[in-house]
Amino acid sequence: MTSSKLQPATRRRWRGSSPRLTPYLFLLPVLVLFAGFKVYPYLYAAWLSLTKIIKGQTTFVGLGNYGRLATDPIFYKALSNTLIILITQVPLMLGLALLLAVAFNSALLKFRAFWRTAYFVPIVMGLVAYGILFSTLLNSHHGLVNFLLEAVGLPRVPWLADPVWAKVSIIIALTWHYTGNSAVIYLAQLQSIPGELYEAAEIDGATAWQRFWHITLPGLRPAITLTVVLSTIGTLQLFDEPYVLTNGGPNNATLTIGMYLYQNGFKYFDFGYASAIGYVLTGIIGVIALIQFRFLREKQA
Amino acid sequence: MERTTLSRPMAIALAFMAVIWVSPFAWLFSNAFDTAATGRLVWPQNFGIGNFTGAIGGDAGRMFLNSLLIAAGTATISVVVGAAAAYPLSRLRMPGKNALLWTLVLLRMLPSVGVLVPLYFAAQRSGLLNQFGVMLALSCLNLPFTLLLLKNFFDTVPIELEEAAYVDGASLWQIVTGIVLPMSRAGLAVVWFFSFTGAWNEFLLPLIFSRVEAAFPMSVGLYGAFGRMGAIDYGFLAAFSIIYAAPAVGVYFLLRRNMNTGFAGVGVKG
Asked: Would you tell me which of A204, B96, B176, B260 could form a disulfide with A188, CB atoms 3.0–4.6 Å apart?
């Protein structure tokens, strides 16, 4: 925000050159884009979710789609798959990211450029590239991972073909791809914690663990809140990785809400039902994000 | 800087993690440069770049250009539209400014997969089921991030210069093009490249929007090539993946230093 002292002169400048409308003209393209690609689709989806195509005609069915959703076992399967991935993958990833950030922030870390490349390049690697990479590595018959497992005397794992291991595969791929991203956010916040705090604690005889627990963690709280909420939203929307790695299988074991929405919309062309799923998903995301914000904020105070 | 020592268990954990993180890259390179690749992690037996020439010789060349067009177009639209809006948001006290900024952030949180169907219909109706439509949709996806980042950059450009120019009789256009934009070049470049990377990697929207094969970007093409193959041609896939990943990785190395500001917004899932 600009300091208020300067405001009058600036306002005069905008007024002097053209009518008061000028700033709004500058904003117009953004507003048009948002109206066209966000607001309109959302309103249209609301209408669609109340309709069903019956004999080629879009027919108003009220809350019929939502009623169907409430008793749809596949939807509940997708919901529970998504939640299982959420509660296992997000803590795993954020824990590893925290470890990485603390290591990166330490003056003792050697080969810094190498580590950075190893952990941060996956972030910018496109979904399809890393998705295909992982589905090849995890292939049951000739994938590298099973080859290595056999080499050290462990049994082969049916990574993408078994309902449980398929979820594990998705979690591994997600973690490989996104951990560096959360680590960057933690690292930025770590650098804002004043070094004197650590020095003072050290003089007072605090152990490394105590310093981490009483200085590092509280200092990171805003970053932790941010990453928890963002990762939760991202995971609830999960679509890309299951689409590329498992296509939702085997036997719907990795079918996420996002995948189910896509299947209904673009495979079965049931646009009304897909839109209803979209609205329910939005609602779930809103409620969970709100709860997390409340919870983490309160702890902060 | 924190002065904790790297304890032994932590060092072991980090090294173990590093092996897991690096091995996919090692696999990718060893297979891409092996013209008789078998999908094993071994030193290339028939070392050569045949996989790369083969990939480029096929459809990959055209897809590369499509991706380039979509990514550069998205980045340019994002920067132009974003900068135009961010400037007044940075400089003026306007009614509804905070409400607008908050709405943008909230809209970013809404699942984009949720509006896939209506987005498709809207694009179909307005004749935007093409690469231009993809660019507009992706720009819109990026906008909250672009706008906030650019507003922060403009906030750091001292307003005194602009006021001096105004007193000297410069027009708004002259001030914007002569002072503000040149002074925020770094910020504009960061936003451009981040939007470029995001659009380059995007899969879902181009998949739905590009209905003809001639318009496929690399992400969609690579996925298609993977699905079509009966026996997996590891060398080809690895080479194709490297070609596909290269521009985004290049941008990362270009902008490493600005990572704290940017990637936080770009790499977010979904």
From this structure: B260
Separation of alpha carbons B246 and A85, rounded Å: 30
Q: Are A42 and B118 spatial neighbours (Cβ–Cβ below 8 Å)?
A: yes
Please report the domains of chain A, with CATH numbers, ordered by start residue: 20-65 (no CATH), 69-300 (1.10.3720.10)
The whole-angstrom distance between A167's CA and the closest CA on chain B is: 17
Minimal CA separation from B220 to chain A, in Å:
8
Give the CATH number, domain containing residue B128: 1.10.3720.10
Of B13, B162, B244, the CB nearest to A126: B244
Residue B19 inside a domain? The answer is no
Is B93 within a domain? Answer: yes
ipTM of the complex in this document = 0.78
**Cβ of A185 and B264 within 8 Å?**
yes
Cα angle value B222/B224/B230 (rounded, 5°): 105
In a domain, B6, yes or no: no
Q: Which of A136, A199, A275 sits opposite B237 (nearest CB)?
A: A136
Query: In this structure, is residue B31 part of a structural domain?
Result: no
Residues of A numbered 50-79 whose beta carbons fall under 8 angstroms of chain B's beta carbons: which are they? none
Instruction: Give the max Cα distance, chain A.
Output: 79
